[in-house]
Amino acid sequence: MNNITIVVAEASYLIQKGLEAVLKNLGDNQVVQKMDKAEGLFESLSTLKPNILILNPDLFEGNTELIKKCCAKLKACKLVIISNKKGDEGKYDEDALLHYNDGQSKILACLEGVKDELDRKQKVERSDEPISAREKNILKHIALGLTNKEIADKLFISIHTVVTHRKNITQKLGIKSVSGLTVYAILNNLIAMDEVK
Amino acid sequence: MNNITIVVAEASYLIQKGLEAVLKNLGDNQVVQKMDKAEGLFESLSTLKPNILILNPDLFEGNTELIKKCCAKLKACKLVIISNKKGDEGKYDEDALLHYNDGQSKILACLEGVKDELDRKQKVERSDEPISAREKNILKHIALGLTNKEIADKLFISIHTVVTHRKNITQKLGIKSVSGLTVYAILNNLIAMDEVK
DNA sequence: GCTGCAATACCAATATGTTGGTATTTATAT
DNA sequence: ATATAAATACCAACATATTGGTATTGCAGC
C-alpha cells in the first residue's frame, strides 16, 4: 500500500474538511495541501507532486485552459473536479466529477474509483490478510479485556504463545491499539459490547 | 464542559463530513446522527435529544413550518441552519446561519458561538456526572487508542497529569481494561467506532 | 517429499501502563 | 472565609505490552 498524496483546491471550508475526512477514511491517503484560491496552485503542484488534485473550476472562474495546464503539469496526477454548479456534465471526465450535493454512495464510489485506478497504475497489490481461527480467539480475549497471562491460563498455552499470536494479529490487521482491536472485534462479531469487563 | 450531542440533517455528504470534522476539532462534541433526508428526523430528535441540530431547510423544501416544529420539539436544542442558497438572509437567525461557500473564519466563529452559548446554559445543570468533563476528554483519547504520551502532547499537559486523570477515571468507573473503557466511551457517545485507529 | 502455514514456545530489550502516594493552584459552593 | 473539587505535576516501584528475533511440530496442498 503506497501513500497517496492529495491537493485540494476548493473555496468552501466545509467541503474542504468533508473531502479531507472522507479521504482519511479511504485508506493510506494524505491531504498535503488545501487552498481556497488559485494563486500558488501551480507552484504547489510542482513542489508537492501530489497523486490526486481535487479542484473546483470556480477557482479559475471556469477557464478550462488553466485546468488543462494543471493536468499537463503532472503525469502521475489524477484530476477530480468538485463543483457547485449544474451543467458541468460533459465538460469533464464523468468518472471523476463530483457535486456539492452528491450523497455518500456517489462520493465514495468516485473517490474509491480514482484511488483504485491509481493503485492499479502503481502496481500496488493489496492482499486481504485474514487472521486464523486461533488468532480470532486470542483477539476475542484481548477485546474482552484479559491480559496476556490471563489468556494463556484460560487457553492452557504459554504466555509466549499469546504474545506471538498478538504480534501476528496486530501485524496482519495493522491495528496496534487495544481500543482499535476492541472495535474490530465488535464490528466482526467476535464479541458483544456487554461482554466486556 | 459537558459533552454536546449534535444531529446533522444535510443532504450533501461532503458538507456532512466537513461539519463533522470541524465540530470534532471544536472540543467535546459528538455528532450522534447524520441524516440526508427529512424522514425520521422528528423521531431522532425525540430519542436522541441532541443539544444542537444543524439543518438544511432544503430537506423540507423550504417549508418553514416544519422547521419551527423542530424547534418546538426540544427546548435545550440550538438550531443551526446550513444552506446552499442565496437569499436566506433574514429568514433565519443570522448568528446561526451558514452557507456552503463560507470560509473558515465564518464557519468557526458561528459554531464556536453556538457552542459557547450552550456551555453557558449547561454550566448550571450538571451534577450527577460520574466523571468530570476533562476526564471524559481524556477517556475519549484513551478509547481512540492514543498512548498517555500522545494524549499529553495533544492536550499540552504533562504525562503525569494524564496518568492521574486515568487513575481517577478507572477508579470512578470501576473499569480497568482499555477495551472496557473503549466500550464505555462508545456507549456514552464519547467516540464513534469508526474514529478508532 | 517438499513447501508453506498455523500453532506452539522461548528470549531479551524496550516501551508503556498501573498504583499509591504528595502537592499546588484555581474556581465554586456553603 | 473556608471547605471542596478539579486540573495540574511529580516520584517510585511494579506490571504488562511491544517488538524482533529463533525454533519445533503437525498438517494440507502440490
Explain what the structure shows.
2 copies of one chain form a homodimer. Chain A is an alpha/beta fold and 197 residues long. Chain A folds into 2 domains: 4-121, 3-Layer(aba) Sandwich (Rossmann fold), CATH 3.40.50; 133-195, Arc Repressor Mutant, subunit A (Orthogonal Bundle). Helix content of chain A is 47%, strand content 13%. The first copy, chain A, has 8 helices and 5 strands, in the order βαβαβαββααααα. Chain A has helices at 13-25, 41-48, 64-73, 104-121, 133-143, 148-155, 159-173, 178-187, and strands at 4-9, 29-35, 52-55, 78-83, 97-99. In chain A, strands 2-1-3-4-5 form a 5-stranded parallel beta sheet, with helices on both faces. In chain A, helix 5 (133-143) crosses helix 7. Chain A is elongated, with a radius of gyration of 22 Å. Chains A and B meet through helix 1, helix 4 and helix 8 of A and helix 1, helix 4 and helix 8 of B. Chain A binds a DNA duplex (30 and 30 nucleotides) through residues 132-135, 147-149, 157-161, 163-168, 170, 176, 178.
Strand content of chain A: 5-15%
The secondary-structure class of chain A comes to alpha/beta
State the shape of chain A: elongated
What's the order of the H and E elements of chain A? EHEHEHEEHHHHH
Oligomer: homodimer
Radius of gyration of chain A, rounded? 22 Å
Instruction: Say which CATH homologous superfamily of the largest domain in chain A is assigned.
Output: Response regulator
Q: What count of structural domains of chain A?
A: 2
| N/C terminus separation of chain A | 36 Å
CATH topology of the largest domain in chain A: Rossmann fold
